Amino acid sequence: MLTIPQALDRLDTIIAAARTAGADAADAVYAGDASTQIAVRLGTLEDVGRSEGEELGLRVFIGRRSANVVISDLSPTALHEAAERAVTMARLAPEDRYAGLAPAGLLLNGTPPELDIEDSHVMPPEALKALALEAEDAARAVAGVSNSEGGGASAGRVVTALATSTGFAAGRSSSSFSLSASVIAGEGAAMQRDYAWHATRHFADLEAAAAIGRRAGERAVQRVGPQKLETASLPVVFDRRVSASLLGHLAGAITGSAITRGTSFLKDALGTRVFSSGIHIIDDPLRRRGLASRSFDGEGLPVRRTALIEDGVLTTWLLDVASAAQLGLQPTGHASRGAGGPPGAGTTNLHMAAGNQSVAALIADIKRGVLVTELIGMGVNGLTGDYSRGASGFLIENGEITVPVAEITIAGNLKAMFQAMVPADDLEFRMGTNAPTIRIDGMTIAGA
């Protein structure tokens, strides 16, 4: 894997080669990663994995015609051959009047902000194995746990770099550490599984292995003996393990590509109240040590903290250069891309701001409802907003969480669901997208 200066040197070489071959403009991205993964089961090492890879993607423009190539051979000869091949392909490509690089005046100038997303801590395989075993042992020690799907630990590092013929050149390096355990409780047909997991940029921020394992075991035991429910309209409370998925549906509905194609149920919602008053949803690429933090976007634009939903109102689309041009707007710094293909748009560290009441207060007046802790399937229609997913969790009776439930389907429409959301005060930043526990009244529960 290359260092950032080495990667930028390769990008400079291939862009220069593309210009020499006849390209009017070009950009290139480097992505390299290396990681070690350890898996254990029943106290025994089950698998050791080491993955390393790197690739370089070049995008060239001849007028409004463009082409992309991706290579893994980064030798000087391969770089020049790829540049010539890309230019040849671009000459044959159809014109796209919206394609192009970000204007030079919009690019990030100066040194990118420091986000503290790289930890130099070295985790040898033996240390990862010890953590995985400790997590699994703690999970298996919980009374009622009958079997194990295993424990896992990993450590990795990623280097990315971007350069354009309009003058942008920068890179970033990040680290990651993760730990998990998954176990089974009960016997025979009554068996239930559950898990716990944590990932961080810095090893010092990783939750203790024993705590992760113990949570996995307790969760599995709590799910034993689930009931099925009758079909009804009930309040549904999304545990924060799954509530972040609701923000993912919002993000997908406000990307520039969905808006330009007219395939979003929110295509006419900009500037209108999409959520109830008091709801704030923020995208913050500059969060220190954030799992999705970045100091520039996929086209070299500066990034900033943005309230996508401000007091319930949708304030912006997520726009890359192409979708912004098509809509007659400015790009928003949300472009994302890998080595292959043109940029798209998406979020980074996305979260819904916490509410002002505890989970206990949130459910206190629910006579009968469901706490969802696991979602199954992807039954969401991005065009209409119709929502239907398999789920399991727990019954709520008279304000108390009681027995486990399984094999149910929860259904509604995202437009109505967004308007009905009430967040609790238990927000934690454990993933790239985070939300507190969320209550939505009037959803349809389809049981057996």
Automatic annotation (TrEMBL):
Start and end residues of each Metalloprotease TldD/E central domain: 123-223
CC terms in the record's Gene Ontology section: cytosol
Domain Metalloprotease TldD/E C-terminal intervals: 233-447
GO biological process, one term: proteolysis
Domain of life: Bacteria
UniProt cross-references to InterPro entries, sorted A to Z: Metalloprtase-TldD/E_C, Metalloprtase-TldD/E_cen_dom, Metalloprtase-TldD/E_N, PmbA, TldD/PmbA_N, TldD/PmbA_sf
Segments forming domain Metalloprotease TldD/E N-terminal: 26-90
One example GO MF annotation: metallopeptidase activity
Family per record: Belongs to the peptidase U62 family.
Protein's recorded name: PmbA protein
